[in-house]
Amino acid sequence: MTAVLESEVITKTFSGIQALSDVSIRVDAGERVGLIGPNGAGKTTFFNCLLGILAPDSGTVQFQGRDISSYPVHKRARAGIGRTFQRIELFSDTSVREHLLIAERVHNGTGAFWKDLIGLGRPRRDEIDRCDDVLDLLGLLDLADEPIEALSLGQGRLVEVGRALMTEPTLLLLDEPSSGLDRDETTALATTLRAVQAEKGFAILLVEHDVELVADFTERLYVLDFGSLIAEGPTASTLAMPAVRHAYLGNLEVSDG
Amino acid sequence: MTLALIGEDFVRALLQGTPPGTVYALIGLGFVLTYKTSGVFNLAFGAQAYISAAMFFKARQEWGWGIVPAVVLSVFVIAPAIGLTLERLIFRNLRTASAVSKLVIAIGLSVALPALFELIADYKPVAGRTPTGIVPDGSSVFYDPTGVYPFSRDELAQIIVAGVGVILLGAMFRFTSMGLAMRGVVESPRMTELAGIPADRVSALAWAISSIFAGMAGVLIAPRLNTLISNDFFTLMVLAMAAAAVGRLVSLPGAFFGGMGLGWFIAVFNTYLPRWADDHTWLEPFKDNLTPSLPFVVLFGILVFWPAIRRAVDAADPLSGVDPPPPALAATTRHPLLTLQTRIFGVCFLGLVGWLGFTQADVRWIALLSTATVLSIIYLSITVITGFAGQISLCQGAFAAIGAFTVFQLVDRYDMSALTAALIGAAIAAVVGAIVALPVLKLGGVWLAIATLAFAFFFDAVIVKFSWVGGGESALFSGTQVPRPVIGPFDFGESDRAFLALAVIVLVIVSVAVIQLREGTIGQSLRALRSSEVAAESIGISPARARIVAFAVSAFIAGLGGAFLAMLEGDVNYPKNFSPVAAMFWLVLVVSLSARTVEGAIQAGAAFALFSPVILEGSFLEWLPYFNEDNLPGIFPISAKWRFVLFGLTAIQFARHPEGMLEFGKRRATQKRNDRYYARDAERAAAPEAAT
Amino acid sequence: MADTPLLELEDVTAEYGPFRALFGVSLTIHPGDAMALLGSNGAGKTTVARVASGLVDAATGAVRVDGVTMTREPTYRFAQAGIAHAPEGRSVFATFTVEENLVLYFRRSLGRKNVPAALDEAYTLFPRLGERRRQVAGTLSGGEQRMLSLARVLVEKPRLLIADELSLGLAPIIVDEVYETLTSIRSSGAALLIVEQHVQHALELCDHVALLDHGTIAWTGPSAEAADVVVDHLFETGSSS
Ligand SMILES: Nc1ncnc2c1ncn2[C@@H]1O[C@H](COP(=O)(O)OP(=O)(O)OP(=O)(O)O)[C@@H](O)[C@H]1O
Ligand SMILES: Nc1ncnc2c1ncn2[C@@H]1O[C@H](COP(=O)(O)OP(=O)(O)OP(=O)(O)O)[C@@H](O)[C@H]1O
Ligand SMILES: [Mg+2]
Ligand SMILES: [Mg+2]
């Protein structure tokens, strides 16, 4: 297996708060890896460091064998890292389909100014079709023309996933994709993601508090607590570790996925 | 000996800088207070201050009132009454609106309020009647504790009020629930209500307090002015923005010391710059030009180099999900049939206007139509930057002026063809636009507006004065003349009609380009960036590139329009056409009509050019058979001040429909028919199903 | 005691602009009741919660609190009547510090002199908040912000506590903590209206269930009977969508 992503000893402090200390993880191509930990453990911060939204105090990020630590955010995104946000980040004043279209065109087009001027920047038929395919996959086709503000929380989550998929990522970072979805919708999302993944072969790094989903969906786990990795390994055995139970799970019963 | 001398000069400079510093501090505090308690960057602060000062002046000098009743009336009755009225009629509806809408309203009010006041209170500024302060003999009794610089009583009153103001207001925010509640209402009125606090009452109180402060500041500042006119207050306010910026618009002590610091800095600078200039001759040209613009240089520097400001984010209302989505652009929800009807109507209308323009119109009408066309081009630059990118640029006037001055200079020096020069001018404007955009890229919302305003005033105070821009002293006599182009057999200077045709062609080209841009990848990227920068970046959009392109394109269009405006008028006419204040007026007009559509810009151009001659001067009556130029009814021409009454009504209407009034009108006008068409479609679709 | 309901929605419809989200919803909550609102994505749970706390006005129908009609009254009147709502997502004042957030709420509902005790209680409930009392709330992690908005309503001990997406974004170990507190709040007589994605959790805590479907109430009843209905219902909608 080749590593898609390797982060080495990433450290980040916010005015005295140690949010991450020496976090090194590795995600292989096509793998589904989970990253869990209690609230405030540093999971979102870690995602932000991977994508360059925050600059880590130290440490490097290797993506497909390249050191991308000095890339700005949009370059990392173009290199193949897609993500969704814990707090939904959608574009207001656009419809659901336009959301995906924007992503599709930014991904495809060179965005050259002259092309826009002579009208080559407009969406093509095949681009619209591709968007509709993804919408269909996520069960959002009925909502395609809805304004984004009219969506409920759960529907908004799915749009974010769709938007990230349009950029054809090699690595998809999902930050609590199931929050706002109920059990069945979560299962449906997991099934969809598996199917798309089987087709495109990207890797997934998943942050979740829905332990059932984590147990069922991921192959390997990293566990963060107070910014440091406290455990890693295959999902089932990691979840069974006493340290993990103590720091994170509490009394929760985990059934084997 | 020399050391002592320098020391004494320095101390004197500091003391000298204290009174103006206090004035800046007072205004800075006012900005911070209003921003913190109502979320508005209140460019109407100067207007509010002016009204109280004028009221005080009138009560004292014309009615002969005592100081105390005059203060009570102007500061504690009139000022809060204005604040409460504004809150109730306008800002309450704008509480959750975007920074753009709030700022635009405030800019509009800064012009409308003084005009309205002068109309209602029948106040006329008279030159040379110096206002008096709130302490007896304020300007004639001096105290000189240091023996270096004497302070007048008025100045001491200012210092005391500013100092006490910081402490009292600071205490309000720190120790009372009210301060917290006010900040809460700014951030999310709904969350504050969930805490059981009536948001309406809190924001009314906030406006009352900040207006009283504005009034107090006005009355205190007035004695510094020779004549009480509103423009001076506006200028002072713009100068004092640097103070508010030091306080990052949220810190009262920051604004206080920012203001004082600014006063001291300017005084010290003015003390030493002439000496250095004596030693180093190359400083000479800067000596005259830099001094008046120092506050803007300081302001721009603070905005660009102070990281804390870049990090300041506007907190979004976490409960905004309760609102229904904003209505989509009327054009995007239109039934195809209605679209067709609209297009046919549009073509007919334009055809009619064109036909009238080219066959019937007299010289005066052609001039008006040309102005409307050329202004529409300039306004399209606002459509790009504000309508698409959602950013407020207040330096469009400077970009347009660059285009105009370039034509003037190139034709004057190199005898270049005016059209080529116009394109070069537009290109130069684009480059300047991109350069201005670079340092301010990370600034959002209100901060960008302030930074561009600083640039506009800097341009106004320094750049225009250079002879290679504004023509220097020779331009004082001969003006900044600009010829019209000659292309092959067409001499556009000969025929006004031909020039109008040329302008229309340019407008059409620019309009099409703007539409293409909106629909293209860049336009869509800008749209994404407007609401979520991180999300836009995470799908691969480069915010820096998109914004620089937006700025450059917008500056290009403005430069082109500016060049054409100069050609139309035969002169750059910088103060009338391109001054920062004129440019602010453009923004208000375009945004309040409709910033997001091309039609909006064109309608704004028409409104600006035609409103005054047609409506205010009563020309529309001349179209009727009976009237002609000489027998118009006595009410015409209507005083220009009444247009501000109209503006006031517009603002109230705009506050209810921040998408722009035209946009709103369009939607409402066609809603019924649109719904009917869709309903009929649905029926038809249902019919065959039923049949099978 | 159970005669005047604490909160009553009668045939309520609610709209977002042109879009209608609720069609004739009726619900009654008596003092001491605990009701779970269930339903799939977009069914209107959040909208019901918003109507119940006055955030969204009922377009038709009536909303009564303690028998008094409050339809279209401003939101703060609901809060003053003892209804506390923790909205879904991160409902904190992002520019306030953690402590300022809490103080703003506690001062009004508990009175100035009870604020320190209430703060202590909040910090015992969520020690993380205590460690971060001076941190600006907008920089807290997602879960920490949820804790903050829950701390408000949990400590305040309102007469009716409305929590939307209660356990969303919280680590399992914190969810346990929250449910323990809710149980103790219940036993002290407060009423609850809970929207929760973990059906199991919700059913254990609550004694009534209302099942929403496309903006109407599909079923109400005691939670003991709910399990089967809910499962049936979700399977139906699950397969149709
Ligand atoms: N800008 C900031 N300033 C100060 N502290 C911060 C900042 N951003 C994050 N933190 C702190 O860093 C820690 C890690 O935050 P992060 O958002 O990564 O947590 P998380 O693991 O994603 O938690 P959750 O599961 O609740 O989402 C938190 O304690 C948070 O309060
Ligand atoms: N601000 C809004 N404007 C327009 N429509 C809205 C708005 N908020 C919600 N809706 C619509 O109202 C319906 C009900 O939404 P609501 O948020 O109440 O659902 P929900 O049951 O809470 O869903 P979820 O479980 O996903 O949170 C949805 O179809 C949604 O699209
Ligand atoms: Mg997180
Ligand atoms: Mg909801």
How many strand units of chain C? 10
Q: Which hetero compounds are present in the coordinates?
A: adenosine-5'-triphosphate, magnesium ion
Radius of gyration of chain B: 27 Å
**Total number of helices of chain B:** 29
Stretches with pLDDT under 50, minimum 5 residues of chain B: none
Percent of residues in helices of chain B:
over 70%
What key phrases describe this protein's structure?
heterotrimer; A: 257 residues; alpha/beta; 6-stranded mixed beta sheet; 4-stranded antiparallel beta sheet; globular; C: 241 residues; Rossmann fold; 10 strands; disordered C terminus; binds adenosine-5'-triphosphate; binds magnesium ion
What would you note in describing this structure?
The complex is a heterotrimer of chains A (257), B (692) and C (241). Chain A has 10 helices and 10 strands. With 257 residues, chain A is of the alpha/beta class. In chain A, the strands form 2 sheets. A 6-stranded mixed β-sheet of chain A has the order 6-7-8-3-9-10, with helices on both faces. In chain A, strands 2-1-4-5 form a 4-stranded antiparallel β-sheet, with helices on one face. Chain B has 3 domains: 3-261, no CATH class; 362-438 and 480-526 and 545-621 and 636-659, no CATH class; 664-692. Chain B has helices spanning 2-38, 45-62, 67-91, 99-121, 153-175, 177-187, 189-194, 199-221, 230-246, 252-279, 284-305, 307-311, 336-360, 363-388, 396-414, 418-440, 445-461, 467-470, 474-478, 496-519, 521-531, 533-538, 543-569, 574-577, 580-594, 598-616, 619-622, 642-656, 661-691; strands at 142-143, 151-152, 486-487, 490-491. In chain B, the strands form 2 sheets. Chain B has a two-stranded antiparallel sheet. A two-stranded antiparallel sheet of chain B has the order 3-4. In chain B, helix 15 (396-414) runs antiparallel to helix 16 (418-440). Chain C has 241 residues and is an alpha/beta fold. Chain C has a domain at 7-87 and 158-237: Rossmann fold, CATH 3.40.50.300. In chain C, a hairpin with a 2-residue loop joins strand 1 (7-16) and strand 2. The longest helix of chain C is centred in the last third of the chain and has 18 residues, at 223-240. The relative contact order of chain C is 0.17. Mean pLDDT of chain C is 88; it is low at 237-241. The chains are: A alpha/beta (257), B mainly alpha (692), C alpha/beta (241). Chain A binds chain B through residues 51, 53, 72-74, 77-78, 82-83, 85, 89-94, 98, 101-103, 105-107, 109, 111, 113, 115-122, 147-150, 160, 163-164, 166-167, and chain B through 321, 323-326, 328, 513, 516-517, 519-525, 527-528, 530-532, 534-543, 545, 549. Bound molecules: adenosine-5'-triphosphate (ATP) (2 copies) and magnesium ion (2 copies). One magnesium ion binds next to helix 1 of chain C.
